[in-house]
Design a protein that fits this description.
Elements lengths: L6 H16 L7 H14 L6 H16 L6 H23 L4 H15 L16 H6 L5 E4 L1 H10 L2 E5 L5 H14 L3 E6 L10 H6 L2 H4 L2 E4 L14 H7 L4 E5 L1 H7 L8 E6 L3 H7 L6 E6 L1
Parallel strand pairs: 1-7, 2-3, 2-5, 3-4, 5-6
Antiparallel strand pairs: 6-7
Helix pairs in contact: 1-2, 1-3, 2-3, 4-5, 4-8, 5-8
Length: 293
Amino acid sequence: MNIELRCISCILNRGYLEIEESIDDPSLQFKPLSALLRFLAEEFKPTANPAYLGTKRDRLIRRITGNPDPFKQRKQISNQKALETLPLAKSLLAKETSAELRFRRACLSAIVGNIIEFDLPDNPFKFTDLEELIQQAEKDLAIDEIPQIFNKAKKAKRILYLTDNAGEIAFDTLLVQELKNLGAKVIVAVKSGPILNDATMEDAQIVGMDKVADELITTGSDAVGLFLEECSSEFLNIYNSVDFVVAKGMGHAETLTELQLPVPHALMLRTKCCTVANHFKVDTGKNIAKILF
């Protein structure tokens, strides 16, 4: 997935806000901002990938500011708020009468969790919206390939689950459990270090993913989405040996759509920006469950 011209405002604004979050002294904020402007002058091209630019931007800001995790506090709040809302998602799932309906409900809750992301102009998210969004998740589903995903998952013996954001990962525990209930071994992968508000091993443990997943690993990289050339050999061995991959979030959509995929991948995300929405030919603020081959 390539950038659109409008991406510049989001990439630059998120960088500016991250710099503000990282350094209190305004006089010291000019150095990382100037470096960011130079980086974008060189790299912002029609063929650029939004996840690549976001990754390089955040690494640049963290290196110059010396703040290794400017989103740390917001990730902690995200995990807390998601755990407070998780009982509602569990109660809706418990009402379903079949394995397929339970799976569907778990998918919808996991997709809604993907809304937990900050500083996106097209995503005016508030934690107070979570309960309503979970309840109306079916109505917001613009691409519905959940039945096909269910059939693929039923046949899979080993599934790799690629997480996205902190907070969101609490709702992922429901879907991971349903995947296990279908008979598969489920390996869950988080980022190896902080990037934006993506989930790390710490976030996974806070929400109890380590108690749900059959195996919990990192990708070996802190990149937005999935750049295989940066991943660890441990991760790549697993990635190349599973039967099915479930990938959460826009970053994975932005990167996986550029790859030749070894096995089917299920994308589950919320369209939180126009560029991603345009790629899938849907409106912003919609839920997507789609299989990539």
